Amino acid sequence: MGHALMENRHGLAVLGEVTHATGTAEREAALTLIDTWRPGERRITLGGDKGYDIAEFVMALRERTVTPHIAINGHTRKNGTPRATAIDARVTRHPGYATSQVIRKRVEEIFGWGKSVGGLVQLKLRGLTKVKAKFALALAAYDLVRLPRLLAAPI
To answer: Which of 9, 50, 62, 71 is deepest in the core (most CB within 10 A)?
Structure first.
């Protein structure tokens, strides 16, 4: 599985990781990426889809002074009761949360470009090291393709 950390302002991929697919690989990779890339000690936000709405993951983010802007998993259980969410009103009451929910979908553009142009649809490589190198190259190429548009945009 490929994992990418994207900065929200310009939609650039800042860091990527490749892991073996497990049930918790996405959450573990997210914590690893945050620990690896941290612009300082000030509080940052992390947007994510409802698959990250797990109490242990949200608690791990808060320990790292990261505000979890994660979509609320509102599914109902088989018995009809709604699933409990780890995201509370401390996060959802701020207007930045709604903005993060819109912006977080931009990360799909990175993976879409990587599959359609970057050669990540079906890799002909074997071994985690080779796949990591290909994924890192695809993320760097995506950022290079985006840069001219960002530089030409009015500020």
So the answer is: 71
User: Which parts of the chain register pLDDT below 50?
Assistant: none
Q: Let me know: does 46 contact 71? Beta carbons within 8 Å.
A: no
Domain ranges (residues) in the chain: 2-152
Domain 2-152: assigned CATH number: 3.30.420
Comparing CA positions, the residue from 137, 125, 136, 145 lying closest to residue 16 is 136
Which residues are within 8 A (CB) of 16 and not within 5 positions of it... i.e. 6 or more apart? Answer: 2, 3, 4, 5, 33, 135, 136, 139
pTM above 0.85, yes or no: no
Strand partners, 82: 76
